[in-house]
Every structure is written in structure tokens, then in C-alpha cells.
Amino acid sequence: SNDDIEDVSLFDADDDVSRRSKKSKIRHPVASFFHLFFRVSAIVVYLLCELLTSSFIACMVTIILLLSCDFWAVKNVTGRLMVGLRWWNQVDDDGRSHWVFEARKVSAQGSKTSSEAESRIFWLGLITCPMIWVIFAFSALFSFKVKWLAVVMMGVVLQGANLYGYIRCKVGSRKNLTSMATNYLGKQFLRQTVAKEDQTAS
Q1: Of 50-64, 111-125, 170-184, which range is least confident?
Q2: How many C-beta atoms surround the C-beta of residue 199 within 10 A?
Q3: Nearest to 170 by CA among 98, 105, 81, 103
Q4: pLDDT tens-digit profile of 141-153?
Q5: d(Cα 155, Cα 42) in Å, to the nearest integer?
Q6: Which of 84, 100, 178, 186 could be disulfide-bonded to 104 (CB atoms 3.0-4.6 Å)?
Q7: Domain-embedded: residue 143
């Protein structure tokens, strides 16, 4: 732990610096590339398709294929490699469906297998792109582009599902989410109460 005090040489300090630099490096460049490639490509095709071709069907099929590839890659590959999280659905012997949300356990040395750079890339792509599809959905709705609304809703649903799944993996179950929110609100209420009491006392 950080509280332990021990004598170390200057070479150990150099090793510590090299470990930190390795931590910030991208360990899975192919996974990082494809984590952003499919989702950014779908957005670019959506924005430029009317300029590139007049065929709505070709654009729709291309966007849905890119979104489907993105959903599969993020759910099955990049989440596991880049941040050590995964989620899936399994059916038990009774035929009941269960959603499973997992996070990789920290090793005995307390070292994380994912780097900070990969984690930033993963979460930035995972959060930003669904927000862009939500903006596209409102834009298509208010501009009465009904034919594009179905395509945009596919983007919202597929990328939103991955976002929800990985947030559940990171934070925990819905019970944990509720308890976190309750604890936060309780702390805020306590702080305001103490501050008001201090003001009245002074």
C-alpha cells in the first residue's frame, strides 16, 4: 500500500516512472481503433449519405450494418479488453432470463490490466456517440424526416444498450445505484442542515 515506508534505490524510482508510462500507453491498439471506427463511421455516413448517394435504402443498410458491427465489437471484444467489463444474458434451466454484469477483479498486486488511455478512449466513445444519436433523433423528429427516424432510433437503441450495460458493470446492480443516490442525497441534506445551524449559531 501507499502508507508502507521502505528504503528504495533510485533505480526503483526509475522503474516506477516506467510503470506509469506503460500504464498510460495503449495496450490494445486494434481494439481501440475498432471501438471508435464503427460508431464514428455510422455517424459520418448518416451526415454525408444524402451528399454521396440518393439511395435511401443503401444508406440505411450501411448505417445499420455499421451499428450492428459496433454493438457486437463493443459488447464482446473492446469492453473486455480495454476496461475489463462485460455483460450478457443467460437463460437458466427453468427458462428464466438473467442479465449478468461483470467487472474484472484487481490482481493480488493491486495492478490494473487496463491502461488509463484505453479507459478514456472507451468511455469517451461509449458516452459521446449515443448522445449524438439522441440529437439526431430530435433533429429528425422536428424536421419531419420520418424515414430517417427509424435509422436514428436504431443508433439510439443499440449504442444506448451498450452504454447502459457497461454503466451497470461499472457501478453495480440497480440496488447499488439506488443506495448510492440515497447516500448522496443524505449527505447533501446533512451538509445543508449543518450549514444552517452554523449560521443561526453565529
Answers
A1: 170-184
A2: 8
A3: 103
A4: 998 888 899 999 9
A5: 9
A6: 84
A7: yes
Residues in the chain: 202
Q: 89 phi and psi, to 5 degrees?
A: -115, 135
| b (16+ CB within 10 A) / e for 112-124 | eebbeebeebbbe
Full residue range of the structural domain in which residue 124 is found = 29-84+116-169
Residue 33 lies in a domain: yes
Measured distance between the N- and C-terminal CA atoms of the chain, rounded to whole angstroms:
43
Give residue 119's identity as a one-letter amino acid code: S
Cβ-based neighbour number of residue 86 at 10 Å: 19
Taking residues 153-168, what's their average pLDDT?
A: 93
Secondary structure class of 79 (helix, strand, coil): helix
C-alpha cell at position 53: 448517394
Residue 135 above 90 pLDDT? yes
Task: With respect to residue 67, please indicate whether it lies within any of the assigned structural domains.
Answer: yes
Please indicate, yes or no, if residue 185 is contained in any of the structural domains: no
pTM: 0.69
Q: Which residue stretches of the chain are H helix?
A: 10-24, 29-52, 56-73, 79-82, 116-142, 146-171, 174-201
Tell me the three cell numbers of residue 106.
484487481
Close Cβ partners of 71 (under 8 Å, ≥ 6 residues apart): 158, 159, 161, 162
What's the rounded Cα separation, in Å, for the pair 148 and 141? 9
Q: What is the pLDDT of residue 106?
A: 60
Q: How many domains is the chain built from?
A: 1
